[in-house]
């Protein structure tokens, strides 16, 4: 259960979200973060709730899902560890600024969605929703950090934070992978 929540928080990577918030006033950045977090959180909660049924329909077992989620977390974690922080991109106007590039693709990244699925099948959907709620709070809280006036200082903090979260994501992915492989070998040894 704790692994699932840590994987969700590591894959949420609020430091990368801070980096892509649109430039502008504090209120515009906060609005973009809130809109993006609400959209991403709602979508991910819905995915985590239906994930067990969807995996059953697709005939994907929990072991295969754990191994797949582990591999996704490891690969994306390596990317986030070595990649530079993104810069703020041109955003849509007004309240829609929270959709692109904040909610899509930064908040709704593949590892975050798959970590929510992993939390739902490894623990319970309640665990997944709890982890998603904590991630949403983290996403919104980064909008209260620095703005354009001290963006360089903010990037000096956000870059190592993003790398640390990437390493945490790799470790969580390795735990999912080892758990899945252990279950596979345990089933064959029994």
Mind explaining what this structure looks like?
- This protein has one domain (2-189).
- It is built from 8 helices and no strands.
- The chain has helices at residues 2-12, 14-20, 26-57, 62-82, 99-107, 110-122, 125-142, 151-189.
- Helix 4 runs antiparallel to helix 8.
Radius of gyration: 17 Å
Number of separate domains: 1
Q: Overall 3D geometry?
A: globular
Largest sheet: none
Which structural class fits the helix and strand makeup? Answer: mainly alpha
Strand fraction equals under 5%
The run of helices and strands is: HHHHHHHH
Number of strands: 0
pLDDT averaged over residues: 89
- Contiguous uncertain segments of 5+ residues: none
Please estimate the helix content: over 70%
Helices, by number, come to 8
